[in-house]
From TrEMBL:
This is SAP domain-containing protein. The lineage of its organism: Eukaryota, Fungi, Dikarya, Ascomycota, Pezizomycotina. Gene3D superfamilies: SAP domain (1.10.720.30). It holds the Pfam family SAP. Residues 1-15 have a biased composition (Basic and acidic residues). Residues 1-28 are annotated as: Disordered. InterPro entries: SAP_dom, SAP_dom_sf. SUPFAM superfamilies: SAP domain. It comes from Choiromyces venosus 120613-1.
């Protein structure tokens, strides 16, 4: 753009004020002022905006950083490039490293999932250990009352036979111990068949309790154990004979119970295992011995 002044004297005055040579004609003075203005514009540009003698800068490029609608979300900004104003949207540039960030997050997520899986396996193993401990506690709980009666019988019998000072309580303990010694105990007796030194006559156990000891040892239902014990007491009684109806009802109960997968919820499951529950109650209501009313 040429200087506004067109008079020679005004041009010389402009040159003089800016430190330029004032000699020459009008054309020389105008050229001198134009050159000075161009030099001033170059000095105002940043080093990155300076003209490259070999290469020109790429001002526009195409990159898959987002959809067209996403690219429209950013605000337009005015930015100077080589001293000239450009309108641009920098929001798309912020998405340039998005793929790499997603990859890093996916790796972290995978690592967390592996750790969670390991914790879950450990939790399952601990749960199995707890269940085994509860099984032991249950078995011990069943053993203690019955075993304590047998031991009370031993001491009370000693007082009666050797010390001749047995009390009424001792007589009761002896009677209770005698009953326990001749009654069945499926939960405890099933344990006699475990281990290398365990019993090897499961058929005898099944004659008493109606089920294999390996199956009985898994039962945690007191009512079911009670029925098995009742049958063993009747079956082993050497003074009384069980009724055919009692044995028939017991066999029906065992068949239905095993047919349900030994589901121990038959007394509370409603209609799902109503036949097992019916067979259970029928045994309790049945006449057990032939010589009993």
């Amino acid at each position: 753009m040429p200087p506004k002044a067109t008079k020679v004297e005004d041009l010389r005055e402009q040159c003089r004020s800016t430190g330029l040579d004032t000699t020459g004609n009008k054309a020389d003075l105008v050229k001198r002022l134009k050159n000075q203005k161009k030099q001033k514009n170059r000095e105002e540009l940043s080093p990155g905006d300076q003209d490259d003698l070999k290469y020109d800068a790429i001002l526009v490029t195409k990159s898959k950083t987002g959809s067209e609608e996403e690219m429209k979300k950013g605000e337009l900004k005015v930015q100077k490039v080589r001293g000239e104003p450009f309108v641009c949207n920098r929001w798309g540039l912020d998405l340039a490293g998005l793929e790499e960030c997603v990859g890093v997050l996916e790796e972290k997520t995978s690592a967390l999932e592996e750790r969670a899986s390991a914790h879950k396996l450990r939790q399952c193993a601990l749960k199995d250990e707890v269940n085994l401990l509860w099984d032991d506690v249950f078995t011990l709980t069943l053993c203690v009352p019955e075993y304590s009666r047998i031991r009370n019988r031993f001491i009370s019998t000693f007082k009666r036979d050797k010390l001749n000072n047995a009390t009424e309580s001792d007589i009761d303990s002896i009677q209770e111990g005698n009953i326990m010694a001749h009654e069945g105990d499926a939960a405890v007796d099933a344990l006699l068949y475990e281990g290398l030194n365990g019993r090897r006559d499961p058929s005898a156990f099944k004659e008493l309790y109606g089920m294999h000891p390996a199956d009985v040892v898994k039962i945690r239902h007191k009512e079911t154990i009670k029925i098995l014990n009742i049958h063993a007491g009747v079956r082993a009684d050497s003074h009384k004979t069980g009724t055919d109806e009692f044995y028939r009802r017991f066999a029906e109960f065992v068949q239905l119970f095993e047919g349900s997968g030994c589901d121990e919820s038959y007394l509370t499951a409603g209609s799902q295992y109503a036949d097992v529950a019916r067979a259970y109650w029928s045994i309790l209501d049945c006449q057990r011995y032939q010589d009993c009313a």
